[in-house]
Amino acid sequence: MKSSRRKFIASASLLTLGASVNALPMDQKKEKKVLVHHAIFWLKNPSSVEDRDKLVAGVKTLGKIETIKMLHVGIPASTEKRDVVDNSFAVSEVMFFDNEQDQKTYQDHPIHQKFIKEHSHLWERVVVYDAING
Fold this sequence. Notes:
Number of domains: 1
CATH class: Alpha Beta
Low-confidence stretches: 16-22
Distance between the termini: 49 Å
Oligomer: single chain
CATH topology: Alpha-Beta Plaits
Shape: globular
Radius of gyration: 20 Å
Structural class: alpha+beta
Mean pLDDT: 86
């Protein structure tokens, strides 16, 4: 009984601390500039799990490019169906860069060019959103 009470108190303390740190006004937080590159792919053959998996594997090879600070590769989640949710895509990539020049280096990088050459036959459409801190 004492052990579970201690765990509860410790957890509650951590949650309170976390909430107070996140409650700082934005002007008090040192915000690092980040460029976010989000590419969304629709397959030519949307019912092909094999094509989707090939594309996922190909996107993951891009993580070897040194200017990418973080890479997330995903497929549509089984979340609640709502009017604002578009899960018609097959594969999503989100990359983080320190600046526009690093993103440009990625665009021109031989690994990225090889990815396009070897995988573009799989997709029908790609939409890209690039955003920098506001």
